[in-house]
Amino acid sequence: MSAPPSTVNAATEIDGGAMDCGSGLLLMVTRGIRTVGAGEVLAIRTEEKSVVADLPAWARLAGHEMVDVEEQSPTGPWRLTVRRGSDTVFSTGGGADLGTRLWIYTNFDCNLACGYCCAESSPRAPSRRMPTELALEAVEQFAEMDGREVLLTGGEPFLHPELGEIVSRSAQLLPVTILTNAMVFARGNRRATLEAMDRDRVTLQVSLDSGTPEVHDRQRGSGSFARAMEGLRLARDLGFRVRVSMTLYDEDPATVAALHETLLSEGVPRRDQLIRPVAHEGSAQTGQHISADSIAPEPTLTVDGAWWHPVGVADPNLRVADSPLPIREVFATIRDAVRVQDASTSEGRTVFRCV
Ligand code: SF4
């Protein structure tokens, strides 16, 4: 039997598949409604029945009009149509108060293959390198929006052959932090790249999961602790500010205390020691659940898109845009989503949790 014909014409159609409003659908709808003019209609196809109940609440909170729900069979799929409100004020993306930081994935390949890697990085991962000019254009646009800090991550950023140029030109505009496992820059060209960086404008954030090799090597591979410590010491000896981030499955007090002790003895102050849980993203089989309504946004760019948060770049539910530029549009989409979340919270609802 063929499906009944659609009765409402739409300027744009999007397919939400099996996503519900508690996962990535609202981000997809938020960027979809931004593409239609005032008074025009966005159509959303869905296979998830809870969307039929939840999307009208989103439309009302966002200032749009629910037009129709077409049901192809009692078990779906459904086609929902929403007319963009005429007096809806969309964010223009101006200002960078939203987090004030911009994350950029320079590449996805890495010398390690940590079991909890949220980016699914490894020596075999496609490099997905951010072209230098694209990265610099992003930083320039962010600086124009009064952004305050750029954070470069991956993958291992020092595997990007043009990292030095990205950093030196970015650092002329904004302070730069590079997240690194500190294992690959001790020698050769990468050592020269490191030495050329501006000590006043560049911070290195080294991943170290314990104060002794046991936990770190179990999570990151045999011998990795010793090389990370060698890199950390080198960076400090060269005069860089070094922060350390520790990723743990369980916050075991003894492991944490041992790391603090090790780092203090290395001259890394407590304010530069960050402990974070494993996120259940990417390669991780367990960890903290992440969603757009459970973590504050930290706009993040990859060569092929923009994301809600740097831990979510392997999660289609956290995709904000299909292109990293323009930055203004990335921030605007996130702001629109946050605005509806805030409106929902002020009504006392839990935000569109469907289960
Ligand atoms: S967690 Fe960091 S060091 Fe480990 S594989 Fe991922 S990017 Fe590489």
Instruction: Pick out the low-confidence regions.
Output: 351-355
Strand order of the largest sheet: 10-9-8-7-6-5-11-12-13
Sheet-strand content, in percent, reads 15-25%
Content-based structural category = alpha/beta
**How many helices does DSSP assign?**
9
User: In angstroms, what is the radius of gyration?
Assistant: 22 Å
Shape: elongated
- Distance separating the two termini: 32 Å
CATH homologous superfamily classification of the largest domain: Aldolase class I
State the domain count.
Answer: 2
Mean pLDDT level: 91
Q: What is the level 1 CATH name of the largest domain?
A: Alpha Beta
Helix content: 25-40%
The CATH architecture of the largest domain would be Alpha-Beta Barrel
What does this structure look like?
With 355 residues, this protein is of the alpha/beta class. The chain folds into two domains: 72 residues, Translation Initiation Factor IF3; 244 residues, Alpha-Beta Barrel (TIM Barrel). Helices cover 30% and strands 19% of the residues. It has nine helices and 13 strands. It has a nine-stranded mixed beta sheet. A four-stranded mixed beta sheet has the order 1-2-4-3, with helices on one face. Helix 3 packs parallel to helix 4. The two termini are 32 Å apart. The C terminus is likely disordered. The site of iron/sulfur cluster (SF4) has 13 residues, from loops. Iron/sulfur cluster binds next to loops.
